[in-house]
Amino acid sequence: MSGTGNRKIILFSFTGTGASLGRRLCGKLEEADHICEAYAPEKYAQEGVRPMPADRAELIGGQWGRAAFLFIGAAGIAVRFIAPWVKDKYTDSPVLVLDEKGRYVIPLLSGHVGGAAALADEIARLTGGTAVHTTATDVQGKFAVDVFAKEHCLEITDRAAAKAISAAVLAREKIALYIEESYRDMLPSQAEGMLPGEVILCGTREEADAYRYQVVVSGQLCGQRPDRAESEDLSGSVILRLKPLETAAGIGCRKGIAPELLEQGFLDVLRESGISIRQVKMIASIDLKKDEPALIRLAEKYDVPFVTYPADELRTVEEVSAGSEFVEKVTGVDNVCERAARLCARNRETGVDGTLIRGKCIREGMTAALAAYPARTAGKTGCAKSDEKTTDILIFAGTTEGRLLAEYASAKGIGCYVSVATEYGETLLRDLENATVLTGRMDGQEIRTFIEEKKIRLVIDATHPFARAVTENIRAACVEAGKHLPVRCVRCLRQDDEACGGPERGEGPEGTSGIIRVDSVQEAVEYLQQTTGNILITTGSKELELYTAIRDYRERCFARVLSAGPSVQESVRLGFEGSHLIAMQGPFSVEMNLALLHQTKAAYFVTKETGRAGGFEEKLEAAQKAGAVLVVIGRPKETGLSLDEVKELIARP
C-alpha cells in the first residue's frame, strides 16, 4: 500500500520557475490519484496554478491535519508558514520542501505517521530527484513502528510505548512482532523475509513473551490477556498494542459480474492495502446495486453488512481522487466506490466523511475503495477508566449460546443489552451484572430504533436456528441502522452443528422405528397425515396450528410446550388441552422423554434438529428405547461465527 494513501496535496511556490514545476508536478500527482491544488503569487499564477490567497492562514489552518503541504522553495519559508499550527506529529499535516529544480525533496513534518516520508519518495520518483530523509530509523534502514502502523491501517494506542520501541530499535534490541490470528491476512505470506532483521515475527504470544520489547496487533487492547496466568511477571516488558482500524469498503461493479471474480478483486485490494477482512465492518455501493448477486454473496460469505445509497446522497461526499464521465452517465455519480466508502464511514454527529485510506482501485469488472471510521481511541493513550464503560452491545438470546454470551460479557465487566422474548428468559439472566435485560419481542422497526438510539456497535443474533423471521428482522434492522452508524451484525451458530445420526427417511425397521427427516413443520404434518398412532409434538407453540390439519389430531396429538402463559393459551385455543397438553420447562433427560412417550403411548416423536444444546441426543435415545419413530425437522443452513469467535468480538473495544 502506498504510505501516502490518496490524499489532498496543497503546493505553494514563490517564483515563476517554482510555479511551473508546481503545475507539472500537480499533473503527475493527479495521475497517481491524488487531489492537488497549486498556489503562487498572483504575478506567477498560470493555468493549473491559482493566485496565492490574501489570507494564507485561513487556507492552511482550514486544511491542517486534513491535507499535505508541499513548499517549492526555501525551508525557512515553509517553517514560517506552518509555525502557528504545529502541535503533534500524530495530528499534524505532512509537510515537505522541494527545491525549484526538483533535485531534492525533504519531509519536514509528520514523516511517518502523516506519510510525508512516503510522499517524499513518491515525489522524488516523479521528478527524478532524491528524497532526503533525516529520521534516524530511515537513515539506518531500521524498523519504524509508526510506518508499519500506517501502512497496515493500525492505530497506535500508546505513544510512550511507541517511542520506547523506536529507541530500542536504534539500540539494536530485538523486537517481537505478534499478530493476532484473526488479522494475519494483512501481511503477505512472505512477510517474515521482508521484515528488518531486528524484528522477530512470532507465531504465539508465549513466543513473543520471551522478548522484552513487543509489538502486538490485536483487537483486545485493555486489561490482562485472558490466557495469561496471574503469576506471570512481565513488569520489565514494553508492549505496544496496535489496534486494527475499522474500515468501510465501497465497491462498484459491472452488472452480472461473476461472484468469484468480484471476491478475487476485492481480496486483492485488501491484501495490497495491508488490511484484513476482519477490519471491514461494512460494504457499501450505490442503490442500483442493491440486488447484485455477487455483492450480496460477498457480504454473506464474510458476514459483513451490505448497504446501498441513492446517487444524490453519494454526491454529498465532497472530494474524490478521480471521476469518470461514463460512470456518472450510467449511475448519476462520477465515482461510486470512494463516495460509498467515505459516506458509509461518515461520523453522523459531526458530518465528517470517513478518511480515505485507499482510493479507487480498478480490477476486472469492479472497483473498490477503503475508508476508515473515526478511531475510538484517537488522541488517547492507555485504556479508558473502568467508570467510562459504554454499553454498545446488543445480544438477542433465546438459546444456550445467547445465555453463555451474556454470562461471558458480564464476567468480563462488559456492558450489554440482552433481548429475550419471554419472562422465563429474563429469570435466567436477571442476576447478571453489567447486563440490561429487555423482555418482549421487538419487530424490525423497534430493533432499528433501539440500535440507533443506543448507538449499538455490535448486534449478536443468538436466537433459535428455527426463528427465521426474527433473524431476518435483526439483519434488516442492522442494515438500515448501518446507513447511519458503524454497526456490525453477527450470527452465532449453535455449538453442535452436526446433523443427527440414524437411518434416513423410510429406513426404519418395517416402518415402525428409526428416523424420518423432513425440511419443515408442514412437511412433517404431511408425513404424519399418512400414519396411524399417537404423536408427541415438541416443536413449540408457534407452529402448533399446522398440526390441526392431521385427522383426529385432538385424540392423536400430544403437545409439549413451554410453561409460559402465552404458549399455554395459544395451545388451548387450538384444541390441545387436558392430558393432551404438557406445559413444562426443560432441559429434559432421556428418562423424562421416555416417561412421556410411554405415558402418551406415542408411536411418533416430533422434534426439531436442535443439536446437543437443545437436547436432541436425549430425544433420540428416548425414541430408540421406546420404539418410536423420531420425526426430525432439519435445521436451516446458516453461516455465522462460532461461540468462541463471538466471544472474541465481545472482548474487543
Give an overview of the whole structure.
It contains 24 helices and 28 strands. α17 packs across α18. The protein is an alpha/beta fold. The model is unreliable at 1-5, 221-234, 375-389 and 497-513 (pLDDT under 50). The longest helix is centred in the N-terminal third of the chain and has 16 residues, at 16-31. The two termini are 26 Å apart.
Strand order of the largest sheet: 3-2-1-4-5-6-7
- What is the terminal-to-terminal distance? 26 Å
Rg over alpha carbons: 31 Å
Summing up helix and strand content along with how strands pair, one would put the structural category as alpha/beta
Question: How would you sum up the major sheet?
Answer: 7 strands, mixed
Q: Helix tally?
A: 24
Percentage of residues assigned to helices: 25-40%
The overall pLDDT average reads 80
- Beta-strand percentage? 15-25%
Contiguous uncertain segments of 5+ residues: 1-5, 221-234, 375-389, 497-513
Envelope shape: elongated
The total of beta strands comes to 28
